[in-house]
Specification:
Strand content: 25-35%
Largest sheet: 9 strands, mixed
CATH class of the largest domain: Alpha Beta
Order of helices and strands: EHEEHEEEHEEEHEEHEEHEHEEEE
Number of strands: 18
CATH superfamily of the largest domain: Pseudouridine synthase
Number of helices: 7
Shape: globular
Distance between the termini: 10 Å
CATH architecture of the largest domain: 2-Layer Sandwich
Structural class: alpha+beta
């Protein structure tokens, strides 16, 4: 397996798009095959997972992970983007109390329907919503279900609220700030956002692009010390270890037999390792039949 494929945990700085981070990482490490797993808005900071080399093939398993954020919203002002990067379109007096904030917290915790921001990357009639909004069109976006697993809010001052939340993928935190502001009767927009966790990955383990640059400049290939193995992306899948012959058959696209399990549940995805302990595939394990069918295979000659 290549020693230059895996996951890089980056602490994104404010003002960069997620694509900017990918572009700079490509220049730093000299590898074209890099993608990110979960966009952060330019004003947001925090954890951005980069998939390097053939680890781009496991990015789909990272996109749906639960996220944790901290942020701050300003009451009394609405913006056209629902965040500080937009234009203020309305100002109202703020009379909200801690009791009002608690009622809003309770109302927005759990399974809710959320209308995405007008300025979002959602496709509408084949065009991005933000492009239509920038051209002056009013975009009708459908409400979509999201799950706010945890939500804590507290006043920092009379017009500023700090929030901490855990939510499912696809949740727009700036839309949540907008809707909380409407419930409080004063409007609101998001002024800061920091992603602290995505699935099993924590911001505390991330590095900045500056640290990545320093590592690349210090020693040839030194940046690779910050790579995590790509199988960490699917660490929540059960693992199966195959002997040399079985792993070779799997890599050739064949279904292989393993020990069946009594009272097995439905087939599920699994990690597959060969006799040397190398991660060679993602498979579908049919416990009742005692088989593993290849879903994605990683050959030793795969190169970034």
């Amino acid at each position: 397996m290549s020693t230059t494929d895996g996951l890089l945990l980056i602490d994104k700085s404010q003002g960069m798009t997620s694509h900017d981070v990918v572009a700079r990482a490509r220049r730093i490490i000299g590898i074209r095959a890099i993608g990110h797993a979960g966009t952060l808005d330019p004003f947001a900071t925090g954890l951005l997972i980069l998939c390097v080399g053939n680890a781009t093939r496991v990015s789909e398993y990272l996109l749906g992970e639960v996220k944790r954020y901290s942020g701050r919203m300003k009451l009394g002002e609405r913006t056209n983007t629902d965040d500080l990067d937009g234009e203020v379109i309305e100002r109202r007096d703020v009379r909200a109390t801690p009791a009002d904030l608690e009622r809003a917290r309770a109302a927005f915790t759990g399974h809710i329907l959320q209308i995405p921001p007008q300025y979002s990357a959602i496709q509408v009639g084949g065009k991005r919503a933000y492009k239509l909004a920038r051209s002056g069109e009013t975009v009708e976006l459908m409400a979509r279900p999201v799950h706010i697993i945890e939500l804590d809010m507290a006043f920092a001052d009379a017009t500023t609220v700090d929030l901490h939340m855990t939510c499912t993928a696809g949740t727009y935190v700036r839309a949540l700030a907008r809707d909380i502001g409407e419930m409080l009767g004063c409007g609101a927009h998001l002024v800061s956002l920091r992603r602290e966790q995505s699935g099993l990955f924590m911001l505390a383990s991330a590095i900045t692009l500056e640290v990545l640059q320093q590592a690349a400049a210090a020693v040839t290939g030194g940046w690779a010390a910050h790579l995590l193995p790509k199988d960490r992306a699917v660490d929540h899948f059960p693992a199966h270890h195959l002997d040399s012959m079985a792993s070779q058959r799997l890599l050739m696209g064949q279904t292989v037999r393993v020990e069946p399990v009594v009272d097995a549940v439905a087939p599920a995805l699994c990690r597959v390792y060969d006799a040397t302990g190398a991660f060679v595939a993602i498979g579908e394990f049919d416990a009742a039949a005692g088989t593993i069918k290849p879903v994605k295979v990683f050959h030793k000659d795969d190169t970034p």
